[in-house]
C-alpha cells in the first residue's frame, strides 16, 4: 500500500486554482483582442467617412432633393452634400437656435425657404450675435425676393442638444429639429433635412454663413493599440503561468 504525500491535496487544489486563473486570463485576452479588432474596423470606417465628406463638401453643388426624393434622404448618403435651392425666404417665420461658434455665442437664424412647388426647406442662414437677435436690428439681411441658396445638406437634430432640450412652448431652441420647428411655425410639406448656407455675404453682413464645423474625432488607432497592448500583457502573464514562473510557491 503506497503512501500519499500529505501535501498532495493542497497541490491539486493549487493546480485547479491556477488552471481556472489561466482560463480567466485567456478569456480576458480574447476579449481585449476582439476590442482591438473592432477598433481597427472602426478606424477603416471613420477614414472612409472622412474621405466621403471631404469629397462632398468640395464637390460642385447639385439641386437639393425634391419632394419625390425625400423618403430616400439619409445621413450616410446625403449629409454634407453641397446643394442649391431656389425660393423665397419666409422671414416672418424665422427661428433662432442657440449657437456657440468661432465668432462667439449667439444664434443660428433658421428661415423657411418657400419653393415654387409649395414645399419648404429650412435654411440655416448663418450666425448672429446675441445683441442682433432682433430681426429689426438687421433688416438689410431680411431678403424679400426670390433667391438661390447654396450650402451643405444637414440632417435634423431632434429634441435638443446634449445638455439642453428644446422648449417648444417657450420657443427656445438648442438644436435644429426640423419637424418641431416646422410645426411651431405652422409649416407643412417641409423637407426632412435643412441646409447650412455657405459663406456668401448677406446685405449688412448678417447672418454670417459658412460656419459649419466638420470634425470627426478619430482616435480609433490609439484605442486599438491600447487594447492590443493590454492583450499582449495578459498573454505574457499566461505564458509565465504555464511555465510555472509565478504563483507556484515553489511547489513544482
From TrEMBL:
- Alphabetically list the UniProt keywords: Cell membrane, Membrane, Transmembrane, Transmembrane helix
Q: How does it sit in the membrane?
A: Multi-pass membrane protein
Where located?
Cell membrane; Membrane
The UniProt entry, under CDD domains, shows: SURF1
Please verify whether the record's keywords include NADP: no
- Which Gene Ontology cellular component annotation is one that this UniProt entry carries? plasma membrane
Please give the start and end residues of each transmembrane region. Answer: 20-38, 221-242
Q: Which domain of life is it from?
A: Bacteria
Q: What is its main location?
A: membrane
UniProt KW rRNA processing keyword: no
Q: Which family does it belong to?
A: Belongs to the SURF1 family.
Protein's name in the database: SURF1-like protein
The beginning of the lineage is: Bacteria, Pseudomonadati, Pseudomonadota, Alphaproteobacteria, Hyphomicrobiales
Amino acid at each position: 500500500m503506497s503512501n500519499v504525500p500529505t501535501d498532495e491535496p493542497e497541490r491539486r487544489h493549487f493546480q485547479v486554482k491556477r488552471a481556472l486563473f489561466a482560463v480567466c486570463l485567456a478569456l480576458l485576452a480574447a476579449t481585449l483582442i476582439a476590442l482591438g479588432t473592432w477598433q481597427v474596423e472602426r478606424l477603416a470606417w471613420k477614414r472612409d467617412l472622412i474621405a466621403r465628406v471631404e469629397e462632398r463638401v468640395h464637390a460642385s453643388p447639385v439641386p437639393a432633393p425634391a419632394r419625390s426624393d425625400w423618403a430616400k434622404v439619409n445621413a450616410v448618403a446625403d449629409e454634407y452634400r453641397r446643394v442649391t435651392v431656389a425660393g423665397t425666404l419666409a422671414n416672418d417665420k424665422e427661428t433662432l437656435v442657440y449657437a456657440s461658434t468661432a465668432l462667439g455665442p449667439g444664434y443660428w437664424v433658421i428661415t423657411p425657404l418657400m419653393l415654387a412647388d409649395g414645399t419648404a426647406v429650412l435654411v440655416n442662414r448663418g450666425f448672429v450675435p446675441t445683441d442682433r437677435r432682433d430681426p429689426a436690428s438687421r433688416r438689410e439681411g431680411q431678403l424679400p425676393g426670390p433667391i438661390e441658396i447654396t450650402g451643405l445638406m444637414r440632417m435634423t437634430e431632434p429634441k435638443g442638444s446634449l445638455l439642453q432640450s428644446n422648449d417648444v412652448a417657450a420657443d427656445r431652441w438648442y438644436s435644429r429639429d426640423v419637424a418641431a420647428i416646422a410645426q411651431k411655425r405652422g409649416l407643412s410639406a417641409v423637407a426632412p433635412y435643412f441646409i447650412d448656407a455657405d459663406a456668401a455675404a448677406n446685405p449688412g453682413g448678417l447672418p454670417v454663413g459658412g460656419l459649419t464645423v466638420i470634425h470627426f474625432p478619430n482616435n480609433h488607432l490609439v484605442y486599438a493599440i491600447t487594447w492590443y497592448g493590454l492583450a499582449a500583457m495578459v498573454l505574457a502573464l499566461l505564458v509565465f503561468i504555464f511555465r510555472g514562473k509565478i504563483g507556484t510557491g515553489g511547489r513544482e
